[in-house]
Amino acid sequence: MDIKEKLLDKFSKSRIVFWFDEEGSFEDELENISLEGINIHKVENNEFYLKYLIEKEKPTESFLLYYNRKQPKIEENWLADILLYSETFFADHKFLIKDELNIRFEKFDSLYKDFKAFFKNKKRINKLKTYLSDNPDYKELSLGMIATVINAEKNDLENILFKVFENGLDEEDNEALKQLEKYNLDSMFYIIIKDHFKIKKDEELTLLKLAFLFVCSYMVLTAPNLVSLNSIKEYFDLFEGKGLQVAGHFVEEWIYNSKYNDLYSTISQEVDNKTKISQKLKNLSLEDLANIYALENIENIILVKILNENLENNIDFYLDIIKKREQSFWWGSYKNNYLSLENYLRFEKTLLLMNLAADTVENLVLSYTKQLYLIDTYYRNFIFYYKNSNNDLIFDYYKKIENKYQNVMNFLNSKWDDLLTSDFIHNNPKNQSNFYHNHLDQHLQKSERICIIISDALRYEIGCELENKLYSSRDRFEVSMDYMVANIPTITAVGMASLLPNKKIEIKDDGTVLVDDKPATNLKMRQDLLKTFNDDSLALTEEEVNSCTTSQLRELFKGKNLIYIYQNMIDKIGDDYTSEGNVFDMVDQCLNSLEKVIKKLVSSGIINIIVTSDHGFIYQDSNVEEYQKIEFPFDKKNIVLNPRYVLGDSLISISGSHFFEKIDNDKIKRSNILIPKSTLRFKSTSGAGKRFLHGGVTLQELILPLVKIRYTKKQNKKIVDFEMISPTKNIITSNNPKFKFLQSEPVSNNVLPLKARFGIYDSKNNLLSNFGYINFDTSSEDVNERTKILTLQLKPISFSKDDVYKLKAYDEDNDVLIKEYDFKIHILISNEFF
User: Fold this and answer.
1) How far is CA 570 from CA 384, 470, 579, in A?
2) Any idea what DSSP says for residue 438?
3) Residue 96 within any structural domain of the chain
4) Which NCBIfam families has this protein been placed in (predicted)?
5) CB 657 within 8 A of CB 489
6) How does DSSP assign 762-818, residue by residue?
7) Which of 319, 245, 27, 313 is CA-nearest to residue 832?
8) d(Cα 406, Cα 400) in Å, to the nearest integer?
9) By the number of CB atoms within 10 A of the CB, which of 179, 189, 422, 664 ranks highest?
10) d(C-alpha 73, C-alpha 20), whole Å
11) In a domain, 385, yes or no
12) Are 328 and 256 in contact, with CB atoms under 8 Å apart?
């Protein structure tokens, strides 16, 4: 029975009820009590007025007279005569609250006594009820009271801590803590914290100290060796039992909470600013630092430490360190620095493996297309990440790789210059002028639709990256990679013309090109040329494809079996003096754009696609020096002089340049051509100082990608498999168990990589450990490189020796369970911390 019902019961016996509320508990709620037909008045020095109102003005109406104090003595009560024929009402607020909240535990009386101020407000009680179950226990009610006051999302300790920490670590300015203090709930808050995390009861806590202990606990969770570190060991001793583990797991779950992990970043940074804890760790070894994920400044310490060491002497060690940091919450903020260094290390590793023993031009091309192209890739990736990182931090490595790349380019292309012949270019079956005959005829003869994407300046190594992106995706693509040899000079006009169906190509001295005596400069001209060979052909730009829906593309492609799509992203940026420095950023955008276009084409009914290029390019990020230029000793009149080539019948061979004699046969016609060797360029030409150039015959300009893609309804790809190779007995004996796995085979075109998420679960599928992650993505044949090690941390709970637990592996991309292994858990040392 609530207050209203009790009062109505009193009014059934008398028209006047005196309510004596000794503690004033219901004063705030009086105005919210609705009693139809009853006059409600608070008695406060208005007795004579009330007496007149009751007896003279409204002698038949009902009155509730409320006192926010105890019942006065008869001789002091001016309404004593009315009291004699009225009913009196005394409400036991504690009993009413207990009844309203359906509380059954015995400790409520003391809880009510200690926090009476909290229970006085009806609105607060109503809000409290939203946090509670039907029959709350002492802990639930305590958390609910705290959650009510600070307006936490839920009444669990996790959300309460988040709400308090959202207000900062300065207790004088923390509004949540101020609200708790207002109702004396701050002491309850800290008591609950100490009890849950097993912090010594006599330890005086502040928000800063609590946050500091959380940071320390997470450090030890991921780097157990720190538990004996003298500079912070005293703080670990503040925990009892497995409290340190409990706190560590709390922080781990906090960091994985997408809604509140930014809060952890803010709080941990404030802890570090005030305690300088990261500075106490900076002398640790890289092995130990690499396992600490609790503080952002650890990233800076690791990077500085790496940069001060001789990376070239232990490349795989540093690659492993960088791989570990991918798990860090702050990876996104520091990945450009780390990935710059990773690509520097891979660049160095490729140089160590570089084999230039090739004695023929064909063998050197084979070496380049199988391995040496990675030199260009790692250099490009380094520059890309470097320009998006903290440049000052890794500037020394920028200078190193810039110098080494130019040296290796000169060395590699010097070997290439010695082997290269005109015959290799012009009489090569892989010459791009044979593209239509070699790669398109076979589809058209079988009435198969084929789509060609020509990406301007997509050099070979970028094509390889596209191939990797496509076969790493889980789309049903069959992807193969080959190369073609560009026509010379390696410029857009020549390359675009050569990729069209043709009988003869004529290259004029001014750089214009005719295909079967017709120009092929723009899209309309190329469309017309295509139609002379195939009336069911279509030429369009990538922009036009992107502007269409898949339905519109299906309609556009109806009746077409030969489709040419032109993309101009890399060359457009690189050819411009003002933007050439951003060319590697554009490469990244180009690859993403190509992948999207390919998927859109497949959705529009295209299943056969070829991606290739008109020419490659050379690029150096540093300024071009004078020693990289050579003189052009001839009269420049009536000659179009390009930094990387010059055409003209009057030209003769000169030092430092390739000289290719004029050709006029049934396939091609052009004048003599001079091309500076390696990456040299002619002086006194417009563009001689450009860092992005093409037109020459380096491997980077001449060797072109040929990426063949076929979409198949049948899934020919499989996700790479793995097996656990240790422990051999299915028994876990440590709180910090280690597992070793073997990736069953190398990742390849038809074997996709896998990111697996591991955890230990009980029979009810409750997670009993942290999550661990392994990337099964190694393409090496070496078994050692395909061996992966996983370390997990069990939660600080009791395990039954008779129960069977499971180590489960999930595909992180789609959350599908892949494998599970049965284990029994026998912790050998019961008080073992980790």
Assistant:
1) 14, 20, 11
2) I
3) no
4) BREX-1 system phosphatase PglZ type A
5) no
6) -TT--B-B--EEEEE----S-TTTTEEEEE--B-SS---TTS-EEEEEEETTTTEEE
7) 245
8) 10
9) 189
10) 12
11) yes
12) no
Which regions of the chain are under pLDDT 50? 1, 829-834
Q: Which amino acid is at 357?
A: A
pTM: 0.82
Residue 320 CB contacts under 8 Å (≥ 6 apart), including other chains = 290
Q: pLDDT of 179-220, one tens digit each?
A: 999 999 999 999 999 999 999 999 999 999 999 999 999 999
Asked if 376 contacts 700 with a C-beta cutoff of 8 angstroms, the reply is yes
- Sign of the Cα pseudo-torsion (492, 494, 496, 499, in order): negative
pLDDT at 457: 98
703 in the same domain as 599: yes
**Which residue carries 């538990």 as its tokens?**
227
761 and 777 belong to one structural domain? yes
Q: CB count, 10 Å around CB of 432?
A: 26
Whether 644 and 696 have beta carbons less than 8 Å apart is answered as yes
Residues 589 and 530 in one domain: yes
Containing structural domain, residue 375? 297-419
692: nearest Cα among 536, 582, 819, 563: 582
**Helical residues (DSSP H) of 370-427, grouped into ranges:** 373-387, 395-419, 422-426
Rg from Cα positions in the chain: 39
Based on the domain organization, do 553 and 698 belong to the same domain? yes
**How far is CA 38 from its chain centroid?**
65
Give Cα 775 distance to the centre of its chain: 15
How far is the CA of 563 from the CAs of 74, 452, 606, 635, in angstroms? 106, 6, 10, 44
Q: What does the block give as tokens for 358?
A: 């090739």
User: Under DSSP, is residue 647 helix (H, G, I), strand (E, B) or coil?
Assistant: strand
**In whole angstroms, how far apart are CA 356 and each of 367, 413, 415, 656, 703?**
8, 11, 8, 21, 17
In a domain, 290, yes or no: no
Question: For 90, phi and psi rounded to 5 degrees?
Answer: -125, 115
Pairing, β 16-20 against β 703-711: unpaired
Q: In this structure, are 501 and 554 located in the same domain?
A: yes
Cα first-last separation, the chain:
55
- Going through 577-677 in order, the beta strands assigned E by DSSP cover 608-612, 618-619, 629-630, 641-642, 645-647, 657-660, 663-664, 668-670, 673-676
For residue 253, the surrounding DSSP H or E stretch is helix 243-255
User: How many other CB atoms sit within 10 Å of the CB of residue 24?
Assistant: 14
Q: Which of 308, 270, 302, 309 is nearest to 287 (CA)?
A: 302
Cα(796)–Cα(833) distance, integer angstroms: 9
CATH number at residue 768: 2.60.40.2550
Number of domains in the chain: 5
The pLDDT value recorded for residue 829 is 45
Kind and range of the H or E run holding 106 = none
Same domain (yes/no): 225, 301: no
SS3 state of residue 183:
coil
What is the C-alpha separation between 419 and 187, in angstroms, rounded?
A: 83
Measured CA to CA, the distance from residue 143 to residue 231 in angstroms comes to: 35
**What is the total residue count of the chain?**
834
Phi, psi at 277, each rounded to 5°: -65, -35
Task: Quote the pLDDT of residue 715.
Answer: 66
Q: Please say which residue of 256, 281, 306 terminates a domain.
A: 281
Is residue 503 packed enough to be buried (19+ CB in 10 Å), middle (13-18) or exposed (0-12)?
A: exposed
Q: Are 637 and 656 in contact (CB under 8 A)?
A: no
Q: Is 189 part of a structural domain of the chain?
A: no
Nearest to 101 by CA among 47, 138, 149: 138
- Do 334 and 434 fall within a single domain? no
pLDDT confidence of residue 432: 97
Helix (H) or strand (E) holding 179: helix 175-182
Distance CA 294, CA 285 (A): 16
**Same structural domain for residues 503 and 617?**
yes
Q: For residue 69, give the nearest of 50, 51, 42, 95 by alpha carbon.
A: 42
**φ, ψ of residue 553 in degrees (nearest 5):** -65, -40
CB-based burial, 319-331: b 16+ in 10 Å, e otherwise: bebbebbeebbbe
For residue 478, what is the DSSP state?
E
